[in-house]
Amino acid sequence: MIKHRYLPMTEQDETEMLKAVGVNSVEELFVDIPQSVRYEGIMPMSGALNEPALLKHMRQLSDRNADFDRYTSFMGAGIYDHHIPVVINHVISRSEFYTAYTPYQPEISQGELQAIFEFQSYVCELTGMKVANASMYDGATALAEAAALASAATKRKRVVVSRTVHPEAREILLTSARGLGLEVVEVGYVNGITDLAELEAAITDDTAAVLVQTPNFFGCLEDIRPIEKLIHASKGLLVMSVNPLSLGLLESPGELGADVVVGDAQPLGIPASLGGPTCGFFAVSEPLMRRIPGRIVGQTVDSEGKRGFVLTLQAREQHIRREKATSNICSNQALLALCASVYMSTLGKEGIREAALLNLRKSHYASGRVEGSNAFSLSFTAPFFNEFVVKLPAGAEAGSMNAKLLKAGYIGGYDLGVAYPELAGHLLVAVTERRTKEEIEGFFREMEACL
Amino acid sequence: MKPEKALIFEMSRPGRVAYSLPECDVPEIDAASVIPSELLRGKPAELPEVYEVDVIRHYTELSRRNFGVDNGFYPLGSCTMKYNPKINEDVARFAGFAKIHPYQPEESIQGALELLYTLQNDLAALTGMDQVTLQPAAGAHGEWTGLMLIRAYHESRGEHRMKVIVPDSSHGTNPASATVAGFETVTIKSNERGMVDLDALRAAVGSDTAALMLTNPSTLGLFEEQIVEIAKIVHDAGGLLYYDGANSNAIMGIARPGDMGFDVVHLNLHKTMSTPHGGGGPGAGPVGVKSKLTPFLPKPIVSRREDGTYYWDTDRPQSIGRVKAFYGNFGILVRAYTYIRTYGPDGLRRVSECAVLNANYMMHRLAPYYEVAYPGVCKHEFVLSGKRLKAYGVRTLDVAKRLLDFGYHPPTIYFPLNVEESIMIEPTETESKDTLDAFIDTMIRIAKEAETDPQLVLNAPYSTVVKRLDETTAARKPVLNCTCG
């Protein structure tokens, strides 16, 4: 009999339990599985390791990756190397949180329910929206869900998305649009932000929504007000994807007239972790409350009048509506929403502004360094938050630049040529609060040396 | 009873801070000098002002008002609330896994790519499929991905098949995923033994059938004995077979979906592979397919070159595209891989054997007190009905609430929908006979209480921080946040 530290079954247990069931062997419990579909071999998969050997193996795999502790990262493009306050890991390591599931039994899940209620409150505060949900898989899938919501709410099948939206979010949008039968129209950019003339031409009377991102994929800030006027004039919805940290400084989407606000909470205390798990957030204006996808927590009282929290508005969800549901999301990213909540609790009203301002100052110091360089130039002049595009000199190739930077101890910028062929030779550089003046200087010196 | 817990917003005192940010070693420019003032925030976000001790005490108190697997037995049916190994948590936090960027050069993440590549192959071996994508973030996300693959497959053959068949016992996500993938759902009744009604299936399939979605063992905990016949009916009609892997904890190494005739399968790594449920996520829902569907898999997948290096394979012209930013929930995949390596193939088989023995043992001991919906052997879970207690005015909900007073998380209740007053119990393999016996004794005690003192059960729970909550008002007059905005 296999002995394993997670398995309590002893031979005596097994004997007693089989007897209670009235069978002679475990094998008899599987008589309902037809012989023809039985698996008789040993599955050709990785073998068992004891605990010390497994730790060593995992350490070896981990050591073959260039991590932010050993390399200085200027990579952003949706995932950022921000400082993660140490308290966060202590909170999410409380196993009452991480070993629980969706709070179906509210009396013994008040902790998670209140934490989600507070997360919803944080998202509403930052975005200026009336209603937020418990979380989505990530910012990119949240954007696709926003398109689905807009289509259902307006009964229109066409969405307009700017090419300055994250390329992967647009790819997911295209995949899900095929399922939903949506038409996706992309509009281009001028000087790093959405081309308003092209956008105006693309918005028709049957347009469900305009999808924009700000700061956009190039780091540039979109001019939302004219976009809001255009889409609302045709009775479509304004969907904004935002970087939550930037909202410490930037005008809230609610004030700008957004109907749906989505984004990824990774900048709020969530490890990069090769891009996942992160945490999408989703907020809407009041009229769209009963169309919001996913779990949502509401405040109520118990039978003695005491405040408590429950999952609510469940009539929207898949387990009630089944094929009539407009979203199939079930499990979401609760533990990462908790990371983001603890981050916002830690930063507070002053800290979120200060962190955003630090990002702004350091990235602008870095962009000034580019402007002063003979070799490089800034590709766009639109205002930006903590990321900007650097044009390499003619003939320089972004991929080989990054390979050289890696050897010098830097994780370089994002090679824009991958997703935007017209921007080959352009590097998207992110500068968070973690980068020091010295690191910034060293990075650009090294970039020049790589030429 | 405990007093109400303050919201963190209610603890705010102007001037308190809990943060420590890097110094500003560059010129302290004004935001307005580089950003037009109309793009700057007019009024600050009203986040609470607290200090570090407040943060820790607040969330520690919230955690004490929560119940996880580490707190006690959590037999929530179809959710596989098994023990979440601590080594999983430790390794996922290694800097080389937690502090790496998805767009780093491939040569700088070879360890991560090797892990993903190996996990793809391990899950293919476990399910009997040919290729696996690790992108989907959760079970429902995997279902949708799988259905989009099925759609692409039929379209590539010039066939317009827009109907997905699901049994009435299926998870709610199945029909919802079908809708989001653009399909029409056809629900077929189960027969009196809880199995697929073959006549209903034969009547439902046709030239418009895209797929049948099946959970096997089903949500009733029953292995679908007619699976070979079912596969033949669906395949003969030109449809494909989709396997909802929510219940795969029952059959690892014993029967593989690929060998049963399934063409597409998803696994819930937060269930079968022990990665924690996180209070409702993050999970991971990898999807495995037979070779005829591999051209359509989301891109990228991880491939291995002849020289032993690994790379993102994005050259997949028939791919359905991308379903998730970057490469899926990598941190969860690290945990799942770690788990697989604690057991190996023989160990995983033993996991399923123990899970099934535990479930059968509980079912037999509880049968005299709660009606077993479908007698016979069960797999990893079983469904009881609490309808006998209705004579005393006690419903399944009341039994569940009474269990809270004894320190248990209740089973899944009122699902599946085709069993009256259903109680769905999944013990998992990581619970000892001692734990099962204590829980069984409690269930028997509650059944007796229902007969002799129903009010005691109806007024439960007594020991929790709140009593039963008013869910109707919560939905009618929603209070969904505490902002003043």
Name the features:
heterodimer; A: 451 residues; alpha/beta; Aspartate Aminotransferase, domain 1; Aspartate Aminotransferase, domain 2; 2 domains; four-stranded antiparallel sheet; 37% helix; 15% strand; globular; B: 485 residues; seven-stranded mixed sheet; 14 helices
Give me a quick take on this structure:
Chain A has helices spanning 11-21, 51-63, 86-92, 95-98, 110-127, 139-154, 167-180, 196-202, 224-233, 318-321, 334-371, 398-407, 437-450, and strands at residues 72-73, 131-132, 158-162, 183-187, 189-190, 193-194, 207-214, 237-242, 260-264, 280-284, 297-301, 307-311, 377-378, 387-391, 410-411, 414-415, 426-430. Chain A is an alpha/beta fold and 451 residues long. Chain B: Residues 33-308 form the Glycine cleavage system P-protein N-terminal domain.
Word description of this protein:
The complex is a heterodimer of chains A (451) and B (485). Chain A is of the alpha/beta class and 451 residues long. Chain A folds into two domains: 72-83 and 348-450, Aspartate Aminotransferase, domain 1 (Alpha-Beta Complex); 87-342, 3-Layer(aba) Sandwich (Aspartate Aminotransferase, domain 2). Chain A has helices at 11-21, 51-63, 86-92, 95-98, 110-127, 139-154, 167-180, 196-202, 224-233, 318-321, 334-371, 398-407, 437-450; strands spanning 72-73, 131-132, 158-162, 183-187, 189-190, 193-194, 207-214, 237-242, 260-264, 280-284, 297-301, 307-311, 377-378, 387-391, 410-411, 414-415, 426-430. In chain A, helix 5 runs parallel beside helix 11 and helix 6 crosses helix 7 (167-180). Chain A is globular. Chain B has 485 residues and is α/β, with parallel strands linked by helices. Chain B has a domain at 87-342: Type I PLP-dependent aspartate aminotransferase-like (Major domain) (Aspartate Aminotransferase, domain 2, 3-Layer(aba) Sandwich), CATH 3.40.640.10. Chain B has helices at 52-64, 86-92, 95-98, 110-127, 139-156, 173-180, 198-204, 227-236, 257-260, 330-366, 396-404, 433-452, 454-458, 471-476, and strands spanning 131-133, 163-167, 184-188, 209-215, 240-245, 264-267, 287-289, 301-304, 310-313, 371-372, 382-385, 412-413, 422-425. In chain B, strands 1-7-6-5-4-2-3 form a seven-stranded mixed beta sheet, with helices on both faces. In chain B, strands 10-11-13-12 form a four-stranded antiparallel beta sheet, with helices on one face. Chains A and B meet through helix 1, helix 2, helix 3, helix 4 and helix 5 of A and helix 1, helix 2, helix 3, helix 4 and helix 5 of B. Chain B: Residues 33-308 form the Glycine cleavage system P-protein N-terminal domain. Chain B: It holds the Pfam family GDC-P.
